[in-house]
Amino acid sequence: MPVSLVILAAGQGTRMNSDLPKVLHKVAGSPLLHHAMQAGRSLGPERVVVVTGHGADAVTRATLAYDEDALTVLQAEQNGTAHAVAQAAPLLSDASGDVIVLYGDTPFVSPETLEAMQTARARHAVVVLGFHAADPGRYGRLVTEGDALLRIVEYKDATEAERAISLCNSGVICADAKVMFSLVAEVGKDNAAGEYYLTDLPELARKRGLSAGVVICPEAETLGVNTRAQLAQAEAAFQARARAEALENGVTLTAPETVFFALDTVVGRDAIIGPNVIFGPGVTIESGAEILGFCHLEGCHISRGATVGPFARLRPGAELADDVHVGNFVEIKNAILDEGVKVGHLTYIGDADIGEHTNIGAGTVTCNYDGVMKHRTKVGKNAFIGSDTMLVAPVHVGDGAMTATGSVITEDVPAEAMAVARARQVNKPGLATRLFTRLRAIKAAKAKG
Known about the structure:
The structure is a single chain. By secondary structure, the chain is α/β, with parallel strands linked by helices. Helices cover 22% and strands 29% of the residues. The chain is built from 9 helices and 33 strands. The strands form 5 sheets. The chain has a 19-stranded parallel sheet that branches. Strands 5-4-1-6-10-7-11 form a 7-stranded mixed sheet, sandwiched between helices. The protein starts with a strand and ends with a helix.
């Protein structure tokens, strides 16, 4: 059945004590909003509508960064969840199938749970996602009779008997699009908060003779983020799950508790990840690669048999082919390293193409930035770049060529040539002694004066 998503992301999140909209705070390197969008993406939605409010421009930019086809609509005044969903109605007036309402600050609802809600729609007109809370606290309660949902009661409006119920409301709800928006249009605000509650929908549906039901998920999926402490809790929950999944999928983590994954990290079977490795967004590690300890990776692709680290940094655009070796204190950015390239240590390779089986000596720098524009360096295959070579881009070093240690290369080097670009050494007898004597005298004079 076709489905559309409405993701509520208008709240300010005052308890975060932040100028940043709550849904843009990050877990696993990505905004909370992106987690909710990713969960919904598994359903192949026809349309995604994100309801913005506080920081609307920033939330819109984040929405489109994840899905350029997503739609956004502004809830200028926050008058409750039903009021927020109503803002999406004009954008989904011709939608077929179901609408599922998700929350931008609730990152862990699983695709399997959303699929279960869609399946439950065969039995009920309205399906609500519930969970049994260890400490129900101030959650809304689900009042049921068998497998039927009678109503949802907000904590503020609940009786003592209703507050004793452990089955709680997550806020996630699913219904046929036309039914959803017609019910939302009937919601009033005769409640303790004076707001339009989405939680009124099951009772309104029953008054029409329509059934409402509940799908129950683990409480961990419904974790909402309202404070910095809950943000930290969400990060810990994500990492624990990601580490467990990596181990289950055949990845070796030598010290799992020290590895931090991003939302979209992909690691192949038989890869080895050392301790204290941090993955930023956009990293793919192929099977059999090894990342040694204390590396930071983002926006990069590492192929089979490659080794990285320890203490290496790979930045966006780094592409490592099979059997590439990147060693300690090496930084790679926006560069393609072909098969078998070796960059052992203490080197910066940025905006470059390095041919297969080339060796890059220690201390090499591609000088890619002139203060205004970036320029590209190209090094052919089977080349040898001597230690402490400065490659001043744009420059091309040919196949099988060599640069002498300590060279500053400002012109192209032909294939199989050796480039020597350094001043001739001149020794001045006795000059060191005379210079030190003079400098010490100056220092002593300054100390007396």
